[in-house]
Amino acid sequence: MSSLLEVKKLKKHFPVKSGGIIPRQTGAVKAVDGVSFDVKKGETLGLVGESGCGKSTAGRAILKLHEPTDGEIIFKGKDITNVQGEQLRKLRQEMQLIFQDPYASLNPRKTVEQIITEPMKIFNVPKRERQKKLSRLMDVVGLSSYQKDRYPHQFSGGQRQRIGIARSLALDPDLVICDEPVSALDVSIQAQVVNLMEDLQQEFDLTYIFIAHDLSVVHHISDRVAVMYLGQIVEIGEVGELYRNPKHPYTQALLSAIPEANPHKQKERILIKGDLPSPSNPPQGCKFHTRCPLAEDICKQVNPELKQVSEHGQQAACHLVKEVVAGH
Amino acid sequence: MENNTPILEVKDLHTHFLTKTGAVKAVDGVSFDIKPGETLGIVGESGSGKSITAMSIMQLISPPGKIVQGEILFEGENLNNKTEKEMRKIRGKEISMIFQDPMTSLNPVFTIEKQMVETIRTHEAMNKKQAKQRAVELLDLVGIPDPEARLKNYPHEFSGGMRQRAMIAMALACNPKVLIADEPTTALDVTIQAQILELLAKLQKELGMAIIMITHDLGVVAEVCDRVMVMYAGKPVEFTDVLSLFDHAKHPYTWGLMHSIPKITDQKQKLEAIEGLPPDLRALPKGCSFAARCKHAMDSCFEVDPSFKQYQANHHVRCLLYENEENEKVVPS
Ligand SMILES: Nc1ncnc2c1ncn2[C@@H]1O[C@H](COP(=O)(O)OP(=O)(O)O)[C@@H](O)[C@H]1O
Ligand SMILES: Nc1ncnc2c1ncn2[C@@H]1O[C@H](COP(=O)(O)OP(=O)(O)O)[C@@H](O)[C@H]1O
Ligand SMILES: [Mg+2]
Ligand SMILES: [Mg+2]
């Protein structure tokens, strides 16, 4: 399988400005600070980590909704890091974003028909084709065509998410970045939308980056998972192996914190203390060392690079995990 | 140390909102009791009446909402008959509540110190200095480092997890006998959730309070609850101890909830979603409210509203499948 998307050492820093008449930049929020991964065609890459670790910023930088500070984004073999104008507009057809809060992202004054066909209008799709696509999209996401003249407020949260999904598929994208698409939904409705997204992936040959803080949902939908901490990837690998055998102390703590729907099981829990440090003033060395139960001296001094930690290509950035050479 | 006299009993509570477009039966026949030291879970999807049940207990329902029927007995006294002045002595002292959004109980324009000292002095005969000392102890109890200095902060200077802790500290200021926790960890990351749940368990052990844990997360239920009430469209549909709920759930809605959540096992199966949506509480269908979404619905389910029936000792269920033995044969095991 070839890579649809390659992200290399991507950085997105937001300037922090001081007050005063002429504001000066006094620092930076290092929201994304050197992230590398690739996504293969047709796969789902899950992106997890505590809120504030930079998941949404990474997603938006890939879509070029944020101008990357540094690094490279390669989409279908082409460097798109600096594309602008018409080229960027074209690119927007091929990459789409689904948001957590479909209500905030749907214009309340537009009907479902207007919302779903709007991207096609922008790209000058002829009216007849728009209409055909509209009824097909409403059908595949499970809305009835008689609902096309209704407004977003007349729908439930789950239905609004379906409208958002239909719109994001209007231009036949290759890559869909899903930013917490089911986090606001009740479990029964969440399952409907997750199933829908899986069906659509099959039917339209979609590639997903699935951002979520719900680790069970990410496990369910992803082929591979990347774990982020303070703007960096600390572990990445195939989903089954990563969940079964996490190597990074942060991944271990994160997975152990998931409450399991089984009252017979008393889970061994690795409690990590405190909150995520501020990304404008991250700790020296390994960024996790201030909360890590295993930290040693070296962890306070040197920020570890990702290295291979299993024979199947799992990678972790931790001084205390042994490197494994592939191919045995 | 088991004390078997309930501290709080809710009997056939009905709370409705009398809106222009009809009466919203937000809570429609809820009954439960809770004993000191016990944790009772209330589960159900949004709009099922969990928060309104809690607000009814606190006597915080305002028009067009109204408690139209039922009793809420706290230490044997019906809170529905209390005046607002009497309730103010009970709220925060005898029964406390914590919320999903800590800013519902923290005031952004005052320091944590001012708010805590005020809360403590409303209920306890203490001077400012004593109250401040108590506030320091409480922040320390909930695991906020450097509590003396932190008291000087405003809520926005705290992180999300710390605000949640501060709210818990305020709620516990007067050693309440009942703590109602309305989705206290829903907005938090799992790492912080684990810290908060551990904190609540520790405080419960030390202080012996009863906890009503409102949540939609079955993982949280499995972890902290002793008994569980499952609600759907304003009504309890199943009520039993936590082991029976997970091992022998009876109600098709409970089955649906359990199958909807992805489990972290190696075998990946398609999620079994509950199709459809909850009903409009203003125009509840005839028969069982869940029938339209139920995979096991029989013709009679669309006609007859089932009663909340005791099925076994400590196991209540509202479902026609259990109304006679003939029907029970179709129940999957
Ligand atoms: N436009 C912005 N300006 C300044 N800081 C930002 C901006 N967007 C996000 N951040 C900061 O970047 C960090 C990462 O945020 P985000 O990517 O939203 O995290 P996540 O999606 O993982 O919760 C946070 O500290 C956040 O406050
Ligand atoms: N002020 C109000 N007016 C009308 N209906 C209300 C009002 N407050 C709550 N409700 C309705 O009561 C029902 C139960 O709400 P609630 O108890 O908040 O549900 P949840 O289980 O999500 O906590 C919902 O359907 C809601 O729409
Ligand atoms: Mg985000
Ligand atoms: Mg609620």
Task: Give the tags.
heterodimer; A: alpha/beta; eight-stranded mixed beta sheet; four-stranded antiparallel beta sheet; B: 333 residues; alpha/beta; Rossmann fold; binds adenosine-5'-diphosphate; binds magnesium ion
CATH architecture of the largest domain in chain B: 3-Layer(aba) Sandwich
Number of H/I helices of chain A: 11
> What is the number of independent domains of chain B?
2
Distance between the termini of chain B: 37 Å
- Which parts of chain A are unreliable, with pLDDT below 50 for 5 consecutive residues or more? none
> What is the assembly state of the chains in this entry?
heterodimer
User: Helical content of chain A, roughly?
Assistant: 25-40%
Strand line-up in the sheet with most strands of chain A? 6-7-8-3-9-10-12-11
**Major sheet summary line of chain B:** 8 strands, mixed
- The tally of beta strands of chain B, per DSSP, is 12
CATH top-level class of the largest domain in chain B: Alpha Beta
Bound molecules: adenosine-5'-diphosphate, magnesium ion
Give the topology string of chain A: H per helix, E per strand: EEEHEEHEHHHHEHEHEEHHHEE
Radius of gyration of CA atoms of chain A, rounded to a whole number: 21 Å
